[in-house]
Amino acid sequence: MELKLTRPIAFFDLETTGTDIAADRIVEISIIKLSPDGSEKIRTHLVNPTIPIPESSSRIHNITDEMVSDKPTFAELAGDLAAFIAGCDLGGYNIIKFDIPLLAEEFLRADVDFDLKNRRIIDVQNIFHKMEPRTLRAAYKFYCSKEHSGAHSAEADTLVSLEVLKAQLDLYQDAPYIDMNGNKSFPIINDVEALSRFSFYTRYADLAGQIIFNEQGKEIFNFGKYKGKTVEEVFQVEPQYYDWMMKSAFPLYTKKIITAIKMREFNKGNARGD
Hints:
The protein has helices at residues 55-61, 65-68, 74-84, 95-109, 124-131, 136-144, 154-172, 192-198, 231-237, 240-247, 252-272, and strands at residues 9-16, 26-34, 40-46, 89-92, 121-123, 177-178, 184-185, 211-213, 219-221. By secondary structure, the chain is an alpha/beta fold.
């Protein structure tokens, strides 16, 4: 079943130097851009990460330092890539927890604003795990009856993720599921808005899951001694906590979010004349 689109959606996958969102870098990126008229454009780039690729990572994706030594850095590609996915919703496998946060870090390091506002996100892995908990290789075999021989190649993984989603649309178009509250639900599966909602377990404020939204739509901490407390409340009673976070090894996007919250409250105070 083909996706019903009202605007373009960009499926993408990253191969990286590791799994640390704040410290690791992209070594390969592949993007498939689907338009409502059914056309597709594919962009795949090897990327010089400017740091060594650990041997343990090279064993997974088969990309070595030598292969990327003469390739452009992400900073050199950032403007063109941002333009390519401008106005697009986003899709892929495990992108909510990993690919999007790491991509956002790379854009911020390149001084390119990567705005997720108004973008809908479809995570094929979360749909899969809610319905049939497995890996991407197993998902491909389960849904498409094929072997994923190109695992950990960015382009191959991107193509497989899109093919798996289309198979999911066929299989689950009328299927109920049990949500996190134990209620039976019937998603309108072939709708990007519904797929985006279904792709999330928790609403992240900062991509990395350090700051999430509570039921009232307030940003709250999702770690440490203030877990469950609103960011606004903590910064009011312990302003130095903001300084500690800014000096610590949190992702740049997390720091961007807490700075926006701090400035928002500062501006509110000025408006009140505090």
